[in-house]
Amino acid sequence: MIAPNRAAELPDEQRIVITGLGLTSPNGNDWDSYRQALLEKRSGVKPYEIRYFGKTLAGICDFEQTRYQTRKDLRRGTRAGSVGVYCANEAIKHSGIDWENTNKSRVGIYVGVTEHGNVETENEIHVIKGFDYDTSCWSHHHNPRTVANNPAGEIALNMGITGPHYTIGAACAAGNAGIIQGAQMLRLGECDLAIAGGTSESIHTFGIFASFNSQNALATHETPEKASRPFDVDRNGIVVAEGGCLYTLERLSDAKVRGAEIYGELVGYAINTDATDFVLPNPERQAECIRMALDRAGLQADQIDIVSTHATGTSSGDSQECIALRNIFGQSQHTRINNTKSYIGHAMGAAGSLELAGNLPSFKDKTVHPTINVDQVDPDCHLEGLVINDPQESKRVDYILNNSFGMLGINSVVIISRF
Asked: For a FRET experiment, which of 5, 13, 42, 278 has its CA 20 to 30 Å from that of 101?
């Protein structure tokens, strides 16, 4: 029996449900293959080399770029835009929506991003360097490539969507923030269908590798698949990844009318700010964000069946999040806790939405995918319900809580219920 929540008391016009999703990740380009990789403990981290920085490791996607775009589109646009176009089209197809007869002016696009434009600017500087920095060689495509709304705008252009589109800049909390924004706009009546989630092209900028390296926060390991190791005593940093995951969100009333299959309902969410440091997390504020989401959902901590952690594999970040989790879930005998970055690395703006997608199938199969690469749990990361190295069966999976936190102290949490 599903425990009651406040969302269930709302009219159907205010209840927001997931009716489709499209994704590309370093270990799968559709929902089924991605989930299977998580259950089979298959990492998507590989050796990678990028100019100026050199050899490193990354989570690299290999989706079919020309499935929804021409080669001309790809030359003119961006990698983040291409990821978004692929995911949005896949989400619409997965949802079963009659797209041809959908009023495109009532479709909204809300795409979370960590950063956008660095890749394109680095590329242009690399080009003009070969021409003695003659700016007349600078591409006229640079401005539309680097405007902050680009990934969402490329989706709109590709799919003929004339409703609102914009990106949500929320650092590594952006994937959750995109989902939250889409839900809010549906509740306000600003759109009838929201394409929402996050995208990332981060591995294509050498600057992100150089910056994490200068912070001593870039993961290294002689075996690439073992480099991303949140909670492990020998973790040594982040594996940068690209990817994307976009959902179709609808009001329950609309989903019912068209007989849509529903994959989950958004019953709680929260965003807050640490306001303490540029990069160091604040576990007190993180715990506060989790409590806010639980309160909005009308749930107690022990009603949460799976907590999907943000943990990136950094020493301080993982241990600080675990303080927050022990504060909230320390007395829960049922809650299971896992991490998806151990498979794919940190997909930045797409992290939250991709990690949620990895856990949603648990509503049906009642299996919790593990955190991999944990040879020895750091005592600072001890969590009673941590699922490590092998999947676990659960008697009940009714609620999933998804954590995503980011630089400058932004925290986001979403709670999805089984419908």
From this structure: 13
Strands 16-24 and 264-273: antiparallel
The residue length of the chain stands at: 419
What is the rounded CA–CA span in Å between residue 179 and residue 96? 20
Question: What are the strands, taking DSSP E only, across 41-172?
Answer: 45-50, 54-59, 107-113, 165-169
Q: Give pLDDT tens digits for 311-320.
A: 999 999 999 9
Q: Please check whether residue 57 is in contact with residue 224, taking contact to mean a CB–CB distance below 8 angstroms.
A: yes
Instruction: Tell me the HSE value of 2 on the side-chain side, using a 13 A CA sphere.
Output: 17
- Is 311 in contact with 232 (CB distance < 8 Å)? no
> pLDDT for 263-285, tens place per residue?
999 999 999 999 999 999 999 99
pTM for the whole thing? 0.97
Block residue for tokens 């680009």: 150
Residue with token string 């990934």? 151
Q: What is the DSSP string of 211-258?
A: HHHHTT-B---SSGGGS--TTBTT---BPEE-EEEEEEEEEHHHHHHT
| DSSP string over 291-332 | HHHHHHHT--GGG--EEE----S-HHHHHHHHHHHHHHHTT-
**Of 179, 195, 182, 202, which is closest to residue 348 (Cα–Cα)?**
202
Expressed in percent and rounded to 5, the helix, strand and coil fractions of the chain are 40, 25, 35
185: which 2 tokens?
Answer: 């706009």
Q: Is the dihedral of CA 29, 35, 37, 41 positive or negative?
A: positive
* Domains delineated in the chain: 17-257 (3.40.47.10), 268-417 (3.40.47.10)
- Residue 213 has a pLDDT of 98
How far is the C-alpha of 378 from the C-alpha of 381, rounded, in Å?
5
